Amino acid sequence: MRSLFLLLMLATPALAQKKATSFADVADVTAVFEPAKAKPGETVVFKFTISPKARAWTYPTTTGKNQFQLPTTGDVVFSPSFTDPPGAEPSLDGEEHYTSAVTWQFTGTVSPTATAGRKKIALAGTKVQACNDQKCFNLNAATPPTAELEVLPGAVAPPPATPPGAMTVEPPVLQAPPKTVTPPPPSHKGGVKKAAISPDQHRANLNSVIANLEKGGANQPVSGGSIWAFLVTGAAWGWISLVTPCVFPMIPITVSLFLKQGNKSPGQVLKLASVYSLTIIAVIGLSAFVALGTFRSLSVNPWMNIGLGVLLLVFSLSLFGMFDIALPGFLLRYTEKKRGSGGMLGTVFGAIAFSIVSFTCVAPFLGGFAGMAASNKVSDLGLIAGALAFATAFASPFFVLALFPTLIKKLPKSGGWLDTIKAVMGFVEVAAALKFFRTAELRLLSPTEYFTFDLCLAGLIVVAILSGLYLLNVFRLPHDEERPNIGVGRLMWAMGLLGFAVYLMPGLLKTSDGQNQRPNGVVYAWIEAFLLPESVPGVGLPWDSDLSHALDTARQSTDGPRLVFVDFTGTTCQNCRLNERDVFSKSEIDELLRQFVLAQLYTDEIPTEFYHTPPSDADRSAEAAANAQFQSDAFDKNESLPFYAILKPLPNGKVVEVGRYGEGKINDRAAFAAFLTDALKKK
């Protein structure tokens, strides 16, 4: 027994030492040049090998986890084009990876200005990751892949000249093979990857497009006969913005804010409801007139989305009965001295919170309305009136909803109903929190690793099941009273929620090509857009994320100049995903779009899949900001998403605007098809 104990004691440190603590514990890396010696002007190949150890693996660049930064200046100038080596295998979750040694080859040319001697060439900025079954490790950025190259003196010898008078004999060509052109690897949307350029250069390219842009009369002017038509239009935009996925989940915030107001007098409740609605009008109206761009950027800020997700979880726990949310005692005492102004303070902050949370979906409609106003030279006074019309229409339903809880609470036997409503709203807020956490991770990680589409969809299914079981009295929460039976209304709602959960379940299953199954119907399309579905590698339309390159491609087309269809979009834009999945994928629309050169400009952050070697997060965000500024400057202050425009590049460098599609979420597919067809006729 003592010998066994000593053996275990000796073996424990050895076993502990096998636990991976660094990149070197899971993989080896080597880098060499072939040939190892070269003269200025000669071609060399930088070979970088990752050799995963037992039960470890690494990734192809298509996953975004390995990213190579190739120098374009210095002693060796590299070509930005390269491909991932073959041999990647799908893991259980469908993500491709390498489990054995894999070598990337990067072709470069020794610079004509390179001096003779030994040179160490490093791929600074490269990100390399290797994992085992416990965790993942990144290669230390301070020690990037480095290989030594000896630059020989002299230059590449030119080919021998033909002596004067000598006859030049061309060697016979025996069925020469066709020239092989290797296209760049496709992006996650079926497009062409590009080499990274500096944000300043990207901005300069877009400014050049603006300088050469000629408006083509694409706008539909607002009738100038009456300001009332403009105000009605603004109100219509406000009402339409209510029918969005991230506004409806916020309704519980409005209701829960007033659940405790039932003991107040009707006049006090009316006062609180008025303050709540006026605060929404002030916040939304001010943002529409002054800081639309700033608020929209905040609405997609990952840290704000994390904060909003946490806030919703706190609200849900309160609605479940875990605790009550109340202002600090000193604030209550202070507001009591101010004749109950504490209630107003809570109302104001609740309205501000709702306005900020809902801005993710409201901003596109604000952008469309503001762009229309700017393009028609509406006066400042008219713009203020229009912004107030938009905000008032948006806030008007919440004035009624703010009064509704008190009216319910005064009805006979309404206590149990209120407890049920509170609990169900708590479930809804949990589902909304998942959406905000996913939105945040989409901005922080690409692709997502934690709040994936599958996880959030599973969470939504669980929420629907628990809500249905709760309504069936299968379990109770702390504030519930024991009930021997349930009403018909609860039974019908429970059946609907459980049926909804079953309807969503096929979305968790995969098809043979690794894609999520999609239940039929508009309901799943809305849920999918709400949760922001994952990109599907290798499918979709051939999008180009560089507008200047797309315009050049259209000019140089072998069958004559083509039109460029520009899609302004965002990584967290729900209506963008909805249009891509349910409109662009239809055969008749797909066929029309493929007759254009397609440019897709992200205005929040460019996905890494659009690059050979993705630049830093800051550069991708700066490039997206330049796209957003271009949209605003080129299209009359329009900042709505999605936004579609068609451009016609001319041989002299000018660019003519052929048309723009004013509807964000495409509700009329036939009208969108007619828009594309009419543009093609103008070609």
Which terms summarize this structure?
single chain, 683 residues, alpha+beta, Immunoglobulin-like, Glutaredoxin, 3 domains, four-stranded antiparallel sheet, 19 helices, 18 strands, signal, protein-disulfide reductase activity, Cyt_c_assmbl_TM_dom, transmembrane, membrane
Descriptive notes:
The chain has 3 domains: 129 residues, Immunoglobulin-like (Sandwich), CATH 2.60.40; 164 residues, Glutaredoxin; 188 residues, no CATH class. The protein is an alpha+beta fold. The radius of gyration is 31 Å and the shape is globular. The chain has 19 helices and 18 strands. A hairpin with a 5-residue loop joins strand 17 and strand 18. 45% of the residues lie in helices and 13% in strands. Helix 5 packs antiparallel against helix 10, helix 7 runs antiparallel to helix 11 and helix 8 packs across helix 9. The strands form 5 sheets. A 6-stranded mixed beta sheet has the order 13-18-17-15-16-14, with helices on both faces. A 4-stranded antiparallel beta sheet has the order 1-3-8-5, with no helix packed on it.
